[in-house]
Model the fold of this input.
Amino acid sequence: MDGFADWLKSTTISAAILHYPWIWPLCETIHFIGLALVIGIAGFFDLRLMGFMKPVPVRAARDLMPLAIFGFVLNLTTGVAFLIGHPEQYVNNAAWWAKVAFLVVAGLNALLFETILGARTLNLGAGDDTPPMAKLIGAVSLVSWLGVLYSGRMLPFIGDAF
Amino acid sequence: MSFTVWLEGSALAVWTRESGSIWAYPTILTLHTVGLGIVVGANAVVDFRLLGFVPRLPVPSLTPLFGFMWFGLVVNVVTGVVLFIAEATTRATQPVFYIKLTLIGLALVNTKLIQTAMFRDPALFESSIIPQRDKRLAAMSLLLWIGAITAGRLMAYV
Amino acid sequence: MEVRRWISSTTSLAAAALLLTAVPVVAHHSSAAAYDNTKKVEHQGTVTKVLLKNPHGFVYLDSTDEKGQKIEVVIEMGGATGMVRQGWTKDTLPIGSVVKVSGIPSRAPGSHGITEAKFTAPDGTPIAPTPRPEYTDR
Done:
């Protein structure tokens, strides 16, 4: 891992990210905007899957997902920029690995919904309750995205690299 | 002794600032981030509906989102006050902090205008054609909250 | 209130506000933005103040520059959470002691700020706190 971090640190992109003083604050700002989109939209959908806000038709709530994906892409891009700029702050940081783990869970959970379990649930309309599997998927998603947020915010405080 | 010096010397401020515990500054800051995710996120869902992104979403079904927004706001006012007093003398003289508060204030008034418009005549939003004035309010809302997030992040730099 | 007037006045207020933030008065935070990691500086001086706090701690040294002028070196440390875990206390760098510090310099013109600092005694012996046992099993 240290070898990988050293290699990243030696790249021109890494030096460029750290060279211009406005790049890091700009990436951080975008990262916060992206997280608001993901928490808001995915959170909204997850709560409906869990059976809350029943007047919302499940399919209609799902219509917002491309905007959540846009938020996620913003954060993946800025996140990669942080990693390339200061790899040692992350690869040696337990909080970062926790964040990666939560991201993997959130991603696999979403994949499970989209490929196997989603179709029936998406036909549910306003007022319908959701099946237990949908409730579980919604809860896992909500907890894992909040886990991503929590471990991300804790990065400077857990682990000594900062 | 000035008010901000007194605030900074309070037991709560000293604990927040100097405790090595993960439950002090780190947790308060993280709760502040969760709060902003809820406030801006819930607002974003309503704004996207008004901008016409998701016409299948019935407007009356979005009422609970305003409850979430208020909850998020309470979390952020409480955590925000604690974060402020921890460094009161610095924060009180930081222009970008007042810019952030102004943008939040404007965003909240804007949200109230949206809420009033939406629920005075929900039938108006059943068609895919949203009145121009409400589209503008929604766009304004997104811009103001993005501005508030930007100002908040810049508090660490300027 | 008439919506169009609300929109235009809010837009101008918000735009003016955000333009103001574009002027960095003091760039003092994340090392990439505020410090130049391509340079290295060293100072020797007397410790005058140690602030162990979140989000960042600071150590202040009274020192002199190459021309012999008195300067204050401001060393930005990590947050109290991490530093306490690493064993830092108010006495790790006693007030009045003479220490050497090396690190990367602040980008702000005229500033003697440093971060990513390493401390040694004047003879070169490294000064590093001992991690506190009750915090090491995180």
Remarks:
- Chain A has a mean pLDDT of 94.
